[in-house]
Design brief:
Blueprint: H1 6-29, H2 33-36, H3 41-46, H4 52-88, E1 91-92, E2 100-104, E3 107-114, H5 122-142, E4 147-154, E5 162-164, E6 167-171, H6 173-180, H7 185-188, H8 190-193, H9 197-223, H10 232-240
Parallel strand pairs: 3-4, 4-6
Antiparallel strand pairs: 1-2, 2-3, 5-6
Helix pairs in contact: 1-4, 1-9, 4-9
């Protein structure tokens, strides 16, 4: 394996972490209030949220939590592929469900990359197994010199290496070591990931505050009584009213 140039790695991370922050901010700027109001109103009523601004902020935080995980997961995938290209002559895969391929010691590794261990539901796990099976069959037909091996690579977590069905599961330090040959890489990437983080987050928080204020004003006009109380019945109607069962014969 080739030795990874840490300075080049830092430059790659610095450039691509900018994309993460820009995408994160654009996701916020493109957001519309109806998308937030599709969140579970019963949950927030159970949490006794009665201040309009707090309600909007909680909706926004719930939305951002899921969207940021996806955006940052895409960044980690690009980073892992970059590391593999530099150290193992790996390459981004064009096979469905496979992110990265590496040829090493007569083994053709087919790697699907996830950010954390708690990814997907049962159907998505089954889909991954099927994608691996299809990819292995395809490689066996095209490449008879190398043995195909499916790998689920997870970027962070402390789960031990294991074999599930037809694939090997590598998590955290093990995954980064597998693609780079560097036992310390999982720690070395943390510093450049924080590149200009304070500056980016200040800009993001400013935009977030503007969105909360804007949406709160609209929400008060549409879903609060004249006395200022949240009209939960009207909010639930907006979120869930769709009665058509009476017209159907069930």
């Amino acid at each position: 394996m080739n030795i990874l140039n840490i300075e080049e790695l830092n430059q790659f991370v610095n450039l691509n972490i900018e994309d993460f922050h820009n995408t994160r901010l654009k996701c916020l700027q493109d957001l519309k209030l109806p998308k937030l109001l599709s969140k579970n109103p019963y949950l927030f009523k159970a949490k006794n949220l009665n201040i309009a601004g707090e309600y909007i902020e909680n909706l926004l935080n719930a939305f951002l939590s899921s969207s940021e995980e996806k955006i940052f997961g895409d960044f980690l995938e690009r980073l892992a592929i970059y590391v593999s290209e530099k150290t193992s002559d790996g390459f981004k895969s064009g096979v469905s469900g496979i992110d990265l391929e590496i040829l090493r010691d007569s083994i053709h590794y087919l790697i699907s990359i996830k950010s954390g261990s708690n990814w997907g539901n049962a159907a998505q796990h089954n889909r991954l197994s099927q994608d691996f099976s299809n990819a292995i069959t395809r490689i066996q037909q095209m490449d008879r010199k190398n043995h195909p091996q499916a790998v689920l690579g997870i970027c962070y977590g402390k789960v031990k290496t294991s074999y599930l069905h037809s694939y090997c599961k590598l998590v955290g330090q093990n995954f980064w070591f597998f693609i780079s040959g560097n036992k310390e890489l999982y720690k070395e990437i943390i510093e450049p990931i924080g590149f200009r983080a304070k500056e980016h987050n200040e800009k993001f928080e400013e935009g977030k505050a503007q969105i909360i204020n804007k949406f709160t004003n609209i929400f008060i006009e549409e879903f609060c009584t004249e006395s200022g109380k949240i009209n939960w019945e009207k909010l639930v109607e907006y979120n869930s009213k769709n009665l058509d069962l009476e017209s159907l014969r069930l």
